[in-house]
Description:
Elements lengths: L1 H40 L3 H30 L2 H17 L13 E3 L2 E3 L1 H19 L6 H20 L4 H18 L3 H20 L7 H8 L3 H14 L23 H35 L2 H25 L19 H21 L5 H5 L1
Antiparallel strand pairs: 1-2
Helix pairs in contact: 1-2, 1-10, 2-12, 3-4, 3-5, 4-5, 4-6, 4-11, 4-12, 5-6, 6-11, 9-10, 10-11, 10-12, 11-12
Amino acid sequence: MKNTEQVIKRNFIIYFILLGVTLFVGVLFIYSSLFAIQDSKSINPEQKFQTYIISLILGFIGGMGAFIFSNVFTKNKQIMLSLLIFLNMLLGIVLFTQPIAGVRRWLNIGSFQFQPSELTKLILPAFLAFYYAQIKNHKNFVLNVILPMLISGISVFLIFLEPDLSSTILITTLSIITIFLGIRDKKVMIFFIILMVVLGVFVFTFQEYFLQDYQSSRLANSDDYQSQRSREAIKRGGLIGTGPFAGKFKYYVPESYSDFIISVIGEEWGKIGIAMVITLFFFLCHELVYMAYLTKDYATFIFCGATASWIFIQVAINTLVGLGVPWMPVTGVTFPLVSYGNSSMIVTLTSIGWALGLIYNNMELNDESEYYE
């Protein structure tokens, strides 16, 4: 037990260093991309950068609060139910807000916009982690699969109604991963996998009944103009890049500060820089899961595994979109902690704080029987 605690404490220090480096890198690229796009977007880069810094501070506050209270919250039925109800209330309220560009995704809090669908990435895995830690009948298919799917389905459906297809797909994937991590019985796991395959084939076959024409078209095609500009910026950066804040082609990449932040990284730091940033996130996600595994606490492992999964999935999607991979549509999925996205920054840092809080408060556990049951 002592050795396990020492390993986790050592990895804690490494993790905070990696997280600090990641946030510093993100600030550099956001600053560079905002000033690069100010002419084409007619934005105020100073004001937008200030909003980004405020989001970063709010994220730190949320992360610290989550670190302190996550273990208490995750083990309290009333709190977790209240958080789930609160989440779905926000997702419902946003459907009655004034549409922006034909969609309803944001709540206006003064001059600040918050996207409730981002909050789903925190609360839904936390609730499912609590749920799976509480149920006793591990071999019951209804309790292990059907009920968690219904719980997740409410939030997913509300996000789909906004409409927000990219978030719908991402939250659906996150729900499946969390349920997968929560199931302990092998037979139930096999049935769950079969069910997911059948549902996946059904949705793909009859997608025209679920999606609007523009959504189907968006999934089938990428934005050649944006992708071409992004690829050109990365090409201009070469292997080692033009240097921090240098390079001019990023000025012509639409939404370089959000959807195409990888083009800024590629031009300034080159392909080596892109590889370094992705590797940094790999270690961030890997260490989160590894430390959670060492605690032998079931809820901690589920939540940390789910959090690490959605962070890295978003990194992969944003990178593939920025690299202009032909079959990847422009989804609007942020690059966590690196690209511009106020709601994303706050929720990502809060989720990481929640995960680290669970790890820290459960690292003295040494009962392996619960996890391996």
